[in-house]
TrEMBL record:
GO terms for molecular function: NAD binding; UDP-glucose 6-dehydrogenase activity. Residues 317-418 form the UDP-glucose/GDP-mannose dehydrogenase C-terminal domain. Pathway: Nucleotide-sugar biosynthesis; UDP-alpha-D-glucuronate biosynthesis; UDP-alpha-D-glucuronate from UDP-alpha-D-glucose: step 1/1. Keywords: NAD, Oxidoreductase. One of its GO terms (biological process) is polysaccharide biosynthetic process. NAD(+) binds at residues 30, 35, 86, 122, 155, 266, 331. It catalyses: UDP-alpha-D-glucose + 2 NAD(+) + H2O = UDP-alpha-D-glucuronate + 2 NADH + 3 H(+). It holds the Pfam family UDPG_MGDP_dh_C. This is UDP-glucose 6-dehydrogenase. The active site is at residue 263. Belongs to the UDP-glucose/GDP-mannose dehydrogenase family. Substrate binds at residues 152-155, 207, 252-256, 260, 324. It comes from Allosphingosinicella ginsenosidimutans.
Length: 437
């Protein structure tokens, strides 16, 4: 199959590279020339484990190419995937669909045969109908079927997720389009990945419902963590105690600083807007969004409290700035709100992240970014672990303590046993471990 991937970001580049690895012939298109130039030089525009090797292998095999020219990329394609961004629209939180609609119009003008146009971007219910309308209006003679195929990969584990997904969802209104999608994904469901064919609107909603449910699970355990702190219980044991119940499941039950990233915050907001417009309010998701927003700044206050009286003028080192490990993505990372609340309280912030510092630089201009966790901790009154990168999970706490001016370790990911922290001469503060305080 010949595939064109429009948008070569976290989703488009990983999906395109994986499709080519299955033997399809793939052209990845992006209008950002710097990304395409970098890819031509073998440099990945994003950090994703294993991606450079996967891309290099398929470029060498002649199955994967990159261009800024959409018409050239789409020429001869059996399927054109739209994987452009759908950020929150400024002001009202609706998904901004302008990139999707612009891509649809360009695709309509470029397709030269019966083509499946597949929306892989996360888009609100009904977007497929609009994409279809745009294609019909732009190129009435074009033969195109519009399909929804939401993506569920996680940054940091994207290749494995794409190649071994829990499920593939295809929303198609035409059986021939569904058959083409089966063909494209055949190498995957031979791996036993269930392929679920639904109506287009249903597929669009599945993606939002999945993300909202996961965001709810995280927020639920975060509120339970707050309760644990008040009543002397340990949230890690509560998580284990409920997660072993097969109906609940252990994943997404780790208390922390609140969810962030490029998907959950914007997708929960967009789902609320869809629900509001449909006069079918989702009150649970409304509460999740409010609770999570408040939590990020509350984590800043937790650090300030741990510093004791008169925090103003003190220095805090934040370790791990990206919204989760193994990505350089800083979009809506909780660290951004934490930095803001610390700076609002007159605290000087230093920071370290294994991969996210380049993106962090523009988002937290007053933070002094350091070359290592120990350098960030040097002279700090408190150190806070914000993101649990592997490289930050086994720090030499005595070395850390020796370089600090103060003696506070705030562990927002509950990585370090309080006894070890105390043995290193540091005062410990964690999340939801009331029995341990
Ligand atoms: P991204 O910002 O990393 O990449 C989008 C790319 O599209 C950019 O490089 C941009 O230059 C390009 N683009 C925009 N308009 C274009 C056009 N007309 N022609 C060619 N290129 C164009 O975004 P992302 O994180 O890959 O997300 C893409 C979509 O996938 C979003 O809808 C997102 O919600 C969804 N999604 C993301 C993830 C994730 O983990 N990042 C997971 C699942 C779904």
């Amino acid at each position: 199959m010949r595939i064109a991937m429009i948008g070569t970001g976290y989703v488009g580049l990983v999906s395109g590279a994986c499709f080519s690895d299955f033997g399809h012939d793939v052209v990845c298109v992006d209008k950002d020339a710097s990304k395409i130039d970098a890819l031509h030089r073998g440099i990945m525009p994003i950090f994703e484990p294993g991606l450079d090797e996967l891309v290099a292998r398929n470029v060498r095999a002649g199955r994967l190419a990159f261009t800024t020219d959409l018409a050239e990329g789409v020429k001869g394609a059996d399927a054109v995937f739209i994987a452009v961004g759908t950020p929150s629209r400024r002001g009202d939180g609706h998904a901004d669909l302008s990139y999707v609609f612009a891509a649809a119009a360009e695709i309509a003008g470029a397709i030269d045969r019966a083509t499946v146009v597949v929306t892989k971007s996360t888009v609100p219910v009904g977007t497929g109908d609009e994409v279809e309308r745009i294609i019909r209006e732009t190129a009435p003679e074009a033969e195109a079927w519009v399909v929804s195929n939401p993506e569920f990969l996680r940054e940091g584990a994207a290749i494995e997720d794409f190649k071994r997904p829990d499920r593939i969802v295809v929303g198609a209104e035409d059986p021939r389009a569904a058959e083409m999608m089966r063909e494209i994904y055949r190498p995957l469901y031979l791996n036993k990945a269930p392929l679920l064919v639904t109506s287009r609107r249903t597929a669009e909603l599945i993606k939002y419902a999945a993300n909202a449910f996961l965001a709810t699970k995280i927020t639920f355990i975060n509120e339970i963590a707050d309760l644990c702190e008040e009543v002397g219980a340990d949230v890690q044991d509560v998580s284990r105690g409920i997660g072993l119940d097969g109906r609940i499941g252990a994943k997404f039950l780790h208390a922390g600083p609140g969810y962030g990233g490029s998907c959950f915050p914007k997708d929960t907001l967009a789902l609320l807007k869809t629900a509001e417009d449909a006069a079918a309010p989702l009150r649970i998701v409304e509460a999740v969004v409010k609770v999570n927003d408040a939590r990020k700044r509350a984590m800043g206050r937790k650090i300030i409290k741990a510093l004791g009286d008169d925090a103003r003028g003190k220095t805090v080192a934040l370790l791990g700035l990206t919204f989760k490990p193994n990505t350089d993505d800083m979009r809506d990372a909780p660290s951004i709100s934490i930095v803001q609340s610390l700076e609002d309280a007159g605290i000087k912030v230093r920071g370290y992240d294994p991969e996210g510092m380049e993106q962090a630089r523009g988002l937290m201009p007053n933070v002094e970014l350091c070359a290592s966790p120990y350098e960030a901790a040097a002279g700090a009154d408190a150190v806070a672990l914000v993101t649990e990168w592997d490289a930050l999970r086994a720090l030499d706490l005595r070395r850390l303590a020796a370089t600090m001016a103060g003696d506070v370790l705030v562990d927002l990911r509950n990585v370090y046993p309080p006894e070890e922290v105390a043995a290193a001469g540091l005062k410990w503060s964690g999340v939801g471990r009331g029995g341990r305080l």
